[in-house]
Amino acid sequence: VLKKVFSSIVDMSKAEMLKNPRGAMYKNKIEGMNFDNMTKQMESFLEVDLEKDVFPLLGGNFGMVFVKFSDADLVVSAKAMSGSAKADVKPHATLIIFPQIYAFCELKDNVKMRQVMEEMVKRLIDKGNKAIQGQEAAMKKIIASQIEQKQPQNQNPSQSEELPKKYMDFKVDSYRGQNIYVIDLLEDFPLAMFKPNYCILDKYLIISVSPALTQKIIDVYEDKKDSLSSNFDFKEMQDKLSPEYSKLIFFDFKKMSASLNSTKWFIDLKAKVIDNPRSIFPKKELDPLFEVLSNFEMLTSSCYFVEPDTLEWDSCLKIKGL
Questions:
Q1: What pTM value is reported for the model?
Q2: pLDDT at 45
Q3: Nearest CA to 17 among 8, 26, 7?
Q4: C-alpha 261: how far from its chain's center?
Q5: Is residue 224 helix, strand or coil?
Q6: DSSP H helical segments within the chain, as ranges?
Q7: Contact yes or no for 136/103 (Cβ under 8 A)
């Protein structure tokens, strides 16, 4: 099922990219995009046989969940701004909106998957560190060469052997008896909130953008409340669709709108763009648009294979007052 769904998404993406005039310039590369090629590239990087070691461990239930929007500071360090950590250069922070999302996948063998994931992630971190260290070493050589050219021939620049610096690390946090495996991004990573991590929760693999989000997922799972299955609106919408679906999408416009409106990023944007009398987007024109959009409450959509190469979609949109 995973291969079918992923292949369908890739095929649709290829068709859209080839329609674009710029995409036509890379026709050969785009047409070479397929599930098998992408799998081989990933296998080469992670040094793992996905078909043999990973796919047999996965069940048929998987998906992605958008939880909410959060404010986050995108910080550019003094080193990144000036090329060195100068005392007179201050870090620059920009407020951005950060989507709290996670992916989940059902597992057939959670013990084996725990072992495979740990090995893959450690290889990923090791290769990532080596790649960045290689770039840093090449840059240092260029700088050293430029300094050497400027110095007198009888004066050699001082050289000291430095230990390789880590830019990513692997750590394990514990929460309510569950292990959360975190890829810790070090060395002035600009988005502190982003800490990719995973957790194996009984028969499910959870991958999220931050340990704090994973902790909330564990809370929902352990307390058996505030989950999608306990959402009355979701159950009501789901009952209107075919039960034999391969893919299900549920979109709660009300919660998304409330989450967006609560962020400082959106409040500031509204003040600058919408409420500003000199804005090119007049409030009197935008207010009716927002009023119309506020009537959309929820969307549930499902699809299933009616034939090996044919997907059929079934959707239900809930509108206030109807």
A1: 0.74
A2: 80
A3: 26
A4: 22
A5: coil
A6: 2-19, 21-24, 27-31, 35-46, 78-82, 110-150, 211-223, 232-238, 253-261, 264-269, 283-293
A7: no
